[in-house]
Amino acid sequence: MEFGKAFTFAFEDKDWLKKVGIAGLVMLIPIIGQLTVAGWALEITRRVAQRDPETLPDWGAFGEYLVKGLKLFVISLVYALPIILISLCANLPLMFVQDSGDETMLTLISVVSVCVSCVVSLLGIALGFILPAALAKFAVTGEIGAAFRFKEVFDLVRAAPVAYLLVLLGSIVAGLIAGLGVILCVIGVIFTGALAYAIQGHLWGQAYNASMAAKGM
Q1: CA distances in angstroms from 164 to 26, 63, 96, 153, listed in the order given
Q2: What is the pLDDT of residues 1-34, one digit of tens each?
Q3: What SS3 class is residue 54?
Q4: Are 1 and 163 in contact (CB under 8 A)?
Q5: Distance CA 62, CA 66 (A)
Q6: SS3 content of the chain, % helix, strand, coil (to 5)
Q7: Are 58 and 19 in contact (CB under 8 A)?
Q8: For the chain, how far is it from start to end, CA to CA, in angstroms?
Q9: Which residues have C-beta within 8 Å of that of residue 199, sequence separation ≥ 6?
């Protein structure tokens, strides 16, 4: 993987300022904007995976990006569902016992809640490996069902675990870059937030290619 490429590729496009700027402005639209830019990032994934020379997409397919973003949300929700359910099951009893005055039961449930939190953290890390593979699978095939062919998705991660570790680390760095926009005020947020999505999309595509290469495909 060319890890650094994910952070520089956008600037190689002669129209990067316009494309990233529009993405940033779209992000200002509540909910729909975030979904649309997420779909735009998936288009980057597809182009990287298919080695398209023009990696940074323009904004002539707004509706297509929105549909992709909605499907990305569904895929992410399904994969995160075990974490959500485990968290709810662990925290709901604590909410009911807090007002009961039963210190023993409160202590017991608190200990269980801490243990479950550790499990949830580990599942979150696992999700950081698996979800990018599922999203890349969807981006390349265009079929939402491809993201739920769990064996194929897990095989992608197993084929190139280091690549997906770099994706996880890169996503953390991208989040930090997005946060820098707060320091640069509103205009900074517009650009750094959009760039963070682009970086992630590029990393997903690179990791997919690394998996396919490791599998001899």
Answers
A1: 28, 29, 40, 12
A2: 899 999 999 999 999 999 999 999 999 899 999 9
A3: coil
A4: yes
A5: 6
A6: 85, 0, 15
A7: yes
A8: 16
A9: 6, 7, 170, 173, 174, 177
> CA 137 to CA 151: how far, in whole Å?
12
Give the Cα separation of 59 and 65 in Å (integer): 9
pLDDT digits (tens, 9 = 90+) for 67-95: 999 999 999 999 999 998 888 876 666 66
> Long-range contacts of range 76-84, CB-CB < 8 Å, 24 or more positions apart?
76/131, 76/135, 78/148, 79/127, 79/130, 79/131, 79/134, 80/127, 80/131, 82/123, 83/120, 83/123, 83/124, 83/127
Alpha-carbon gap, residue 178 to 130, rounded angstroms: 23
